């Protein structure tokens, strides 16, 4: 399979731009997060941007594999991908900027459900694209643990 560079770069740029914009919008809230009680196994704040950049690159690569396929289910899978990406965008705003930790937890569960559906839809088209999204789902489970822990410890 020959790499189609323009679609690849576009698909990599989309989640990176969404994540970058969310990161920009929450930049002033990180001090508040640092001062919160956190559950065991919470990483230092510097881990989050690194993890998210890697996850966004995997997401973009997975989307590229779907965009360049000729599957009839491609459009539905990409719509679902876009919806989960939009839900992903709003989680840090709810958690960090608004400080609505319980709401953010349920929003994160919605995001996880959408990601699992996206994995299922992507997997029907290209199994590799589903595998590329698996670390994202695992990270969201970990993030849900952290999110609920922050809610519980800071209520």
TrEMBL record:
**Gene Ontology CC annotation, any one:** membrane
What biological processes does GO assign it? tetrapyrrole metabolic process
The organism of origin for this protein: Candidatus Fusicatenibacter merdavium
Instruction: Give UniProt keywords alphabetically.
Output: Membrane, Transmembrane, Transmembrane helix
Q: Which InterPro entries match?
A: TspO/MBR-related_sf, TspO_MBR
Q: How does it sit in the membrane?
A: Multi-pass membrane protein
Q: What is this protein called?
A: Tryptophan-rich sensory protein
- The record lists the membrane-crossing segments as 46-66, 78-94, 100-119, 131-153
Origin superkingdom: Bacteria
- Note the Pfam families from the entry: TspO_MBR (PF03073)
Homology family: Belongs to the TspO/BZRP family.
Localization, UniProt: Membrane
